[in-house]
């Protein structure tokens, strides 16, 4: 299972790096990536951050394994690599303190 998941993550990163690399305008790349990440986080808030808090929250608030427990976990499992790949492809490196670098590009 771990091998398949790592292949999925790698393919996502390569796809989004190629996609965002084809965009010549820095503004379009950064704003497009921001919109994609914002949309993902709006619909699946557990994607924000490293994901451990969201997973811990799901386990604390669910008594028995049910659809309410399984769906958020599946969403995080499937969409976290996409969110990470979009972040990397759009020019971020996943750390919050790197956003001033992106703001510098936007101000330029």
TrEMBL record:
Q: Where in the cell is it found?
A: Membrane
**Top-rank taxon, per record:** Bacteria
**Keywords of this protein's UniProt record, alphabetized?**
Membrane, Transmembrane, Transmembrane helix
Q: How does it sit in the membrane?
A: Multi-pass membrane protein
- Principal place of residence: membrane
Transmembrane ranges, per UniProt, are 27-48, 68-91
> Pfam families under this entry?
Voltage_CLC
Protein name per Swiss-Prot or TrEMBL: Uncharacterized protein
What species does this protein belong to? Answer: Dyadobacter beijingensis
